[in-house]
Write a structure and sequence with these properties.
Elements lengths: L28 H5 L15 E7 L5 E7 L1 H4 L4 E6 L12 H4 L3 H7 L2 E2 L11 E2 L5 E7 L2 H8 L3 E6 L6 H4 L15 E9 L2 H7 L2 E9 L11 E6 L6 E5 L4 H12 L6 E5 L14 H13 L3 E4 L2 H7 L6 E9 L5 E13 L7 H9 L8 E10 L13 H19 L3 H8 L8 E6 L5 E4 L4 H12 L1 H9 L6 E14 L5 E7 L5 E5 L8 H13 L6 E5 L16 H28 L6 E4 L2 E4 L6 E3 H5 L20 E6 L5 E14 L5 E11 L6 H20 L30 E6 L21 H12 L14 H11 L7
Parallel strand pairs: 1-13, 11-12, 15-16, 21-22, 28-29
Antiparallel strand pairs: 1-6, 2-5, 2-7, 3-6, 4-8, 8-16, 9-14, 10-11, 10-13, 14-15, 17-18, 19-27, 20-21, 20-26, 23-24, 24-25, 27-28
Helix pairs in contact: 8-9, 11-12, 12-20, 16-17, 19-20
């Protein structure tokens, strides 16, 4: 949603060159830092009722009865609804996320269970936190008071928390309509892995667990809605990452034409994937606004966010690597189990991301991967920054270190021996990518990434210090981890450019921002494409009335898709501007140029015209305009960019840590990240994105964990127990980059937003294990809290040998 244009004087690029590639300060930051952001909570709707949800205290139970009589009589209560009151509304499905691409379906025939989620539970509850009733009152305080008066009688049922247990024959079914508790299943093979394992010099077999944790954005979920009494249009304000999907789902739920629903993604205080899916609350709040005939607002509290918003990451990898005597990989076999929680919200998205990112930058001729998603009585799991990649990188990179130890090869050297080279690009892995096409790495220089990481981390210096032995019980370790990320997920994204009579440029894109700096980076792209000053571009994102079609900001796709749509729309508008100016000035179009908003003749002493003069004036008398539609008087264009394939980003991380064998505390001494995201539009924003991703990855590696008891009760429901790192826990980062432009799009860009979060869990686990190598410790899961490190040391006993 637009917050008004910048009124600073229009300035050209400092040296007259392109805006792309410049570290332009974010134009968003001034108003945000001054407290002038507009979040859902800032959208003041006079007369709004507020909603509060009664959530199940049981992980699995049958609902015997719900009595709302006392709640309805409570002060300020407008309405109280149970599952029976909204049972006529369709259950919620994330249809787009659950869709299996035709190519993937044809080649691999995956199984995807469909588990619609009722807007409010009726017969059973399947996880702690599932909505059972909603109270609408004059304010949230009165609504919360009334919640305590809703009398629900439950009959507890057996609880499944362990995904392995959920797959056993005698496990109780979560969904009666399903054959078992399998949410998804898919398997793939390349080559002859059985023969490769049989003939291998060395085979390592391990079980690694990626533990469950939560995106935990600083702004929890929120949604408000009202019906315009004049037009009848329903407007929904949501901090969603996918406003067009919310519009379609809301229209479907309420039986409305999508054109009658407008969704506005306001400023968003972090999304990270958690806000990229549909939730039942987003359907119920607009429904309530229509039924009550007044605005309705709901804001999630922190306990709700930690326990009832989507979780992520929990996977078990039973992985094997086969190698020859020199450490060259021959085959990989992995059996992956993913805990989906109580509902299948996003189908193959996370599991298949894990499948097609397992090999990373390595050359592996024979592959056997089998993944199963499992339903349990825990909060449903969905994508979180990285979406299946951090989990699979943790397994593969840990396995690489175990193989290096088995062979007696330096871990960095083992990686170097197996990297795909730049001369092999585009490189076909033999797998099928998420779109159902043969997987191909379009570009990159993986050996250079590793070389830089090794040099910056000072591998030889760390090894020399290790030979000196521990200092006061503090042991030093170094770890490496590498990854690839297929970015720019389709099917499309939209950009519309309009030239206003003032000469200003309005750019509307289908991808909203949750802190990525779209209003800056997209303006840089548009300014270069059209030939106008950067600060003459006003960017609107996340408003379905500005761009009727769009997908959203998920899956590291915004820059690739919305950026290239912006570029193409800008080039087309530039053509229109020059052609219109040629008619106005009476000169050939090829004799004109457009720079910094001024159309000039290429000939000396030729005529000139500002964009404002062109756009703000009617055609001159006697000069009729063409009416073929494409070259009319309207200076605007809409482009739907459809990527032909994935743009593959990559990176190498290195970490040097010091572990106190007495306290179990891990201190990061040096953290290196070298990344390749193709052409960088704004280096300042790119650095911020990488830094933020690494910070979240460090949180998962050392601090954050969503813990369930065997009864399905979450034990980390507040920040007293769920530890989110602050800036004090994040070290200064040593960042570097290389640039391998992607041939998959005009700009040569690749997605960047998730990359920083992919490797930290793996690299820190590798570094801690390296530090504790004298004890023979093997790190098989995180987070590496002091207590867990002490447990590893106690289990290992005395040091085994000198380094």
């Amino acid at each position: 949603m637009s917050h008004g244009p910048s009124h600073a004087p229009q300035q050209p690029a400092p040296d007259g060159g392109p805006w792309t590639g410049r570290p332009v300060p974010r134009v968003e930051d001034d108003r945000l830092l001054r407290g002038n952001g507009r979040y859902v909570d800032d959208v003041a709707l006079p007369g709004a009722a507020e909603a509060a949800f009664l959530r199940s205290p049981h992980a699995h139970a049958r609902i015997r009865s719900v009595d709302v009589t006392a709640a309805l009589a409570a002060p300020g209560v407008v309405a109280v609804w149970t599952g029976a009151d909204v049972a006529h509304l369709p259950a919620m499905l994330n249809k787009e996320e659950l869709r299996t691409p035709p190519g993937l379906a044809e080649l691999l025939d995956p199984y995807v269970a469909i588990t619609p989620m009722p807007l409010l539970a009726t017969d059973r509850v399947l996880y702690v936190g599932q909505p059972v009733a909603v109270v609408l009152a004059e304010n949230r305080y009165l609504a919360e008071d009334a919640l305590e008066l809703v009398d629900v009688r439950y009959a507890p049922l057996p609880v499944l928390v362990d995904p392995d247990r959920a797959l056993t024959e005698d496990a109780p079914l979560l969904h009666d309509e399903l054959r078992d508790n399998t949410a998804v299943a898919v398997a793939t093979k390349v080559g002859d892995p059985d023969a490769a394992f049989a003939s291998a010099h060395t085979v390592v077999s391990e079980e690694f667990q990626a533990h469950r944790y939560v995106a935990s954005p600083i702004e929890t979920r929120a949604v408000s809605a009202q019906v315009d009494p004049y037009s009848g249009e329903l407007t929904v304000w949501s901090n969603t990452q996918t406003p067009h999907r919310v519009r379609e789902a809301t229209a479907h739920t309420l039986g409305l034409d999508p054109e009658r629903v407008r969704v506005i993604a306001t400023d968003v205080g972090g999304g990270f994937g958690q806000k990229g899916i549909l939730y039942v609350e987003e359907m119920l709040v607009p429904y309530a606004a229509r039924v009550l005939g007044r605005p309705v607002l709901w804001r999630e509290d922190r306990n709700e966010n930690l326990t009832a918003s989507s979780h992520a990451r929990e996977q078990i990898h039973r992985i094997e690597l086969a190698a020859d005597a020199q450490g060259h990989l021959l085959a990989v076999r992995d059996r992956i189990t993913v805990n989906f929680g109580a509902y299948n919200m996003t189908g193959l998205v996370v599991p298949y991301n894990s499948v097609c990112h397992l090999l990373g930058p390595y050359r592996v001729p024979h592959v056997d991967i089998d993944v199963v998603g499992v339903l349990t009585n825990t909060t449903f799991a969905t994508p979180y920054r990285g979406a299946g990649r951090p989990e699979t990188v943790f397994a593969m990179e840990r396995a690489m270190d175990r193989l290096a130890a088995e062979l007696g090869i330096e871990p960095a050297e083992l990686r170097a021996r197996n990297l795909v080279g730049p001369d092999e690009m585009p490189y076909a892995t033999g797998l099928v990518d998420r779109s159902g096409k043969p997987q191909s790495y379009d570009s990159g220089d993986f050996p250079e990434l590793l070389r830089r990481a090794v040099a910056k981390a000072d591998l030889e210096g760390v090894r020399a210090r290790q030979r000196e032995g521990a200092r006061d019980g503090r042991l030093v370790g170094i770890g490496f981890a590498m990854y690839i990320e297929a970015t720019g997920l389709g099917p499309f994204e939209t950009a519309r450019i309009d030239i206003a009579p003032s000469g200003r440029v309005k750019l509307a894109i289908g991808a909203p921002s949750q802190g990525q700096g779209h209003r800056t980076s997209m303006a840089q792209i548009a300014a270069d494409a059209i030939g106008v000053p950067f600060d003459a571009v006003d960017v609107v994102g996340g408003d379905t009335s500005a761009t009727p079609f769009g997908v959203g900001t998920i899956a590291s796709r915004a820059l690739v898709n919305a950026g290239n749509a912006t570029h193409r729309a800008g080039r087309l508008v530039r053509e229109k501007i020059i052609e219109a100016a040629a008619r106005r000035l009476g000169v050939p179009a090829d004799g004109l140029d457009l720079r910094e908003g001024v159309i000039t003749s290429k000939a000396a002493e030729g005529p000139a015209l500002t964009l404002a003069e062109l756009a703000g004036r009617a055609p001159l008398p006697g000069t009729p305009e063409p009416t073929d539609g494409r070259h009319g008087t309207e200076l605007s264009e809409t482009v739907h960019f459809r990527p032909p394939g994935f743009a593959v980003s990559s990176g190498a991380h290195a970490a040097v840590v010091e572990v106190d064998e007495h306290t179990g505390e891990t201190e990061i001494l040096h953290y290196v990240a070298v990344h390749d995201a193709g052409v960088i539009v704004n280096p300042m924003i790119a650095e911020g994105q990488v830094t933020g991703g690494i910070a979240q990855g460090i949180g998962g590696a050392l601090y954050e964990e969503m813990i369930y008891g065997p009864d399905g009760q979450p034990r980390t429901g507040t920040y007293m127990d769920y530890l989110v790192p602050t800036s004090s826990e994040i070290p200064d980062l040593d960042l570097d980059e290389i640039h391998s432009p992607s041939p998959m799009n005009d700009l040569g860009v690749k997605g960047l937003g998730e990359g920083g979060a992919i490797a930290p869990q793996a690299v820190l686990a590798n570094a801690v294990e390296d530090a504790l190598r004298p004890f023979g410790v093997v790190v098989r899961r995180g987070p590496l809290s002091p207590s867990r490190v002490r447990d590893l040391l106690r289990a290992a006993g005395r040091p085994t040998a000198a380094r």
